[in-house]
Design brief:
359 residues; mainly alpha; 17 helices
Length: 359
């Protein structure tokens, strides 16, 4: 596709709308499919419009929850070779749309209900309420796993002794100073997990804690595996950066971001296929935003934008920890993340103006 070619080509920059061309096409096809599904399910105009509207709302929900995902993707992608950039933006989006929005919810039901994949698919099609109940019951371990992984992602950005740009200086300066203490992020995450697990019933607390440990181990294993894979690639091919290891890291990161959206989608509809259409449309916009951020060098142009995204990630991880205790609407989660990113963008523009004036 032309967009992928633009990523590593130093030619003229594409217009903003051109980045979203494929997203618009997928939106039209997805909403048309949603309307068709609505007609097949209900046979009424009202029912068709209802399914159409739910698909649109789910797409908006996914986009609002994934601003920070796009920024973190762009941050990692800018260090990847053009070959791996293209692979992530083609294979990666297939895994994101089909893997996380369709296969992942089915896999949860397969494990939770101890049934086969085909039976899970039949259950999703014929007994959506029972399917939704199983998904809801699995929310506790998912929240613990995803929240722990995302908190490690967020804290690893701030606890970096080489980090020289600070947005909230008094806080980030201290984090950078203490970054030389080995394992400080792990200690903070484990203390946070222990605190939240104390508020749960003993049986739930055990599930929460063990799932959180798996989330922590997954982060550490992906980091180790990524380092080994990428260092071996560098040995084979001089100058190669961020290959297979970075690809795996981004896929696990996307999965962690997707947990909240997939679970939250069941509040609007119990139909797996409607959820897949809505969230799939949203995932395409995340891909388009990622391409635009990388090609335009937006992260370099707006110096605090990454900071806002990583603060949003830490906030999302805490919300995921709170979810087993009390329900927090996904709208608040999405708006909270978008607000933090918006403030960081405004702070970046303000900093640029002040420094250009002094320059």
């Amino acid at each position: 596709m032309q967009q992928e070619n633009n990523l590593s080509a130093g030619g003229t920059r594409a217009s903003t709308l051109s980045y979203f061309r494929w997203s618009f096409i997928v939106t039209v096809l997805g909403l048309a499919l949603g309307a068709f599904l609505g007609w097949e399910m209900t046979g009424t105009v009202g029912g068709t419009l209802s399914i159409f509207f739910i698909c649109a709302v789910l797409a908006v929900l996914e986009i609002s929850l994934s601003f920070d995902n796009a920024i973190v993707n762009a941050n990692k992608l800018k260090d990847m070779t053009p070959v791996w950039q293209r692979r992530f933006l083609t294979w990666g989006i297939l895994i994101a749309v089909f893997g996380m929005r369709i296969v992942f919810p089915l896999l949860i039901v397969v494990i939770a209900a101890n049934i086969g994949p085909w039976q899970a698919m039949v259950l999703a099609a014929t007994q959506p309420d029972e399917y939704s109940r199983i998904m809801h019951d699995a929310h506790l371990p998912i929240a613990a796993f995803g929240g722990t992984f995302l908190m490690m992602v967020g804290l690893s950005f701030f606890f970096d002794h080489e980090k020289d740009v600070h947005w909230v200086k008094w806080l980030e300066g201290k984090m950078q100073r203490y970054a030389t203490i080995r394992g400080i992020e792990v200690a903070i995450v484990l203390i946070t997990v222990l605190i939240f697990s104390r508020f749960l019933e003993p049986a739930e607390s055990q599930i929460f804690f063990s799932s959180a440990i798996w989330g922590l181990l997954t982060f550490l294993l992906v980091e180790v595996l990524g380092g080994l894979l990428d260092s071996s690639q560098e040995a084979l091919q001089a100058g190669a950066k961020g290959g297979l290891g970075a690809f795996l890291y981004l896929e696990v990161l996307d999965a962690s971001f997707s947990f909240d959206g997939v679970i939250g989608a069941f509040a609007l509809t119990h139909n797996l296929f409607v959820i897949a259409i809505g969230l799939g449309i949203g995932a395409m916009y995340v891909r388009s935003m990622t391409i635009m951020l990388v090609e335009r060098g937006t992260l370099a142009e707006y110096r605090f934008l990454e900071h806002g995204a990583f603060y949003a990630i830490v906030a999302l991880s805490i919300i995921m920890f709170i979810q087993p205790l009390m329900h927090i609407p996904e709208v608040i989660t999405g708006l909270g993340g978008a607000t933090l990113i918006g403030i960081s963008l405004w702070a970046s523009i303000r900093w640029n103006r002040q420094n250009h004036e002094h320059g």
